[in-house]
Amino acid sequence: MNRIFRIFILGLFALLGAAFVFSCSNLPESPVPGNSDVIIYTYNIANTYPHDRNAFTQGLVFEDGVLYEGTGRFGQSTLRRVELETGDILQIRELSAQFFGEGITIYENKIIQLTWRSNIGFVYDKNSFELLQEFNYSTEGWGITHDGERLIMSDGTSTLHFLDPQTFEEISQLEVFDNDDPVTRLNELEYVQGEIYANVWQTDQVARIAPGTGQVVGWVDLAGLLTAEDLSEPVDVLNGIAYDAKTDRLFVTGKLWPKLFEIELISPG
């Protein structure tokens, strides 16, 4: 093998090795739901409602016939009461520009809202949006829901944190797995009929999690909700799950999405 050809071969192997390292470093941190043995649900759109394209949705709750929405971004974060049918904002409270609003939940007559990296949560009167108190937590704030007894909070990892709803002290943690693989980037949460539903950030997937074990018992594949016309203006990722327990309705939307969808889950077979 002459010297020039040897140099060419060594260079080629070096390039291939660099490409392999780069591709591995960019693999998603979460397992691919399609590799799971659990049930993969699809959906049927039951109804479509308007949604504010400027709403960077971080939290979504449905109660007493109206939506409550928490939005994010520094200088744009809000807490809102929204009319479902029209998308009109009925009430709004703006957060200080230093806070990036995150998930919300309603516990009793209070709304609880997280912030991203400030380690501060806010508690409001549900009707007046008056700030009642603040509380602290040690992680990032992403999504929040409750099971009637405990607050359940995500921080973008595979760990869910359970908090006392009165003192906001952490009670326990839960690691979320799909089979043996940790499921990271857990974001907006909703407690639905004994399961924790969690958006997985930067995907079209919602994990259905057993709160007793942390195992994913189902995946909801929400790909294709938006049409080409919906995508004519910039949109961000799927994020926002709300459940109407009285009528068994499930709602989903995304950051900067023009629509909010009422969906029915379809199991395979």
Secondary structure elements and pairings:
Layout: H1 3-25, E1 39-50, E2 57-63, E3 66-71, E4 78-82, E5 89-94, E6 101-107, E7 110-115, E8 120-125, E9 131-136, E10 144-146, E11 151-154, E12 159-163, E13 170-175, E14 177-178, E15 181-182, E16 186-192, E17 195-200, E18 205-209, E19 216-221, E20 238-244, E21 249-254, E22 259-266
Parallel strand pairs: 1-19
Antiparallel strand pairs: 1-22, 2-3, 3-4, 4-5, 6-7, 7-8, 8-9, 10-11, 11-12, 12-13, 14-15, 16-17, 17-18, 18-19, 20-21, 21-22
Structural features, described:
It is built from 1 helix and 22 strands. The protein has 269 residues and is mainly β. It has one domain: 7 Propeller (Methylamine Dehydrogenase, Chain H), CATH 2.130.10.10. Strands 16-17-18-19-1-22-21-20 form an 8-stranded mixed beta sheet, with no helix packed on it. A 4-stranded antiparallel beta sheet has the order 2-3-4-5, with no helix packed on it. Strand 6 (101-107) and strand 7 (110-115) form a beta hairpin. The protein starts with a helix and ends with a strand. The relative contact order is 0.17.
